[in-house]
Amino acid sequence: MPQFLEHSGTSWKGQRLKHEQSLIDSLDPRLRVVAAFLFALVVVSSEQFLVLLIGLATSLLLARLAKLNVKRTLRRVIAMDMFMIFLIIMLPFTTPGEALFSVAGLPASKEGLLHAFKIALKANAVVLCLLSVVGTMSATTLGYAMARLRVPDKLVHLLLFTVRYLDVIGQEYKRMRRAMQARAFVLRTDRHTWRSIGYLIGMLLVHSLERSERIADAMKCRGYNGRFYLMDEMALARQDYTFMVMGALFLATLTGLNFI
Questions:
Q1: Are 204 and 166 in contact (CB under 8 A)?
Q2: 115 with 49: CB under 8 angstroms?
Q3: Which of 2, 102, 146, 248 suits a disulfide with 151, CB 3.0-4.6 Å?
Q4: pLDDT in tens, 91-140
């Protein structure tokens, strides 16, 4: 396993992953990011139901290999599928084609229904793949991988700072809420409550701005010049090359099935 995974920032409370180590975690993070991107690209570009079903089955296999928490994963997938339900309901009535049935005089087309099912299959396959391959990495590891893949520095910095200080802002919010509760504040549906919540959000923004200025000054005092220097080296191992070859053959097969 790459050395940087041992100290990839998981000591930060906001980045701790409730995840059991698996075969997927032994792969190089750069390879995982690229593989997830290519898989999503192939699946989203496909129109054959066979390809989409194979893609969904592959995502389920990856979720099994990644040892994802079943309940947590189902909650996330179902939350997305709630939007798919509205899509499946609306598309048949808004897409022209052969009418299957009608509701209140509005015809539902076969083409629209098939198109809605294709979108649902694509969405579930891509989301499960991302949760399995990319979602099991800490944000710091993902940031390192993006930097090594030559993603623009500003995007990498934005990701790292956002994840790092979301937890800090959350703790500040909890501290201010406890102070309000200590003064017998109770949430109600009245003007006083809304005004107090407004003050809370305003003070949270002010404190966040002040903290960001202090952090910027501290970084400048330590010689920060707009660039993070990555000290960890990433090297592909034997299992990475094996995964790369198998993944390339699999994606090529999926792409070829679209032309059959």
A1: no
A2: no
A3: 146
A4: 887 777 777 777 777 777 878 888 888 898 999 999 999 999 998 888 88
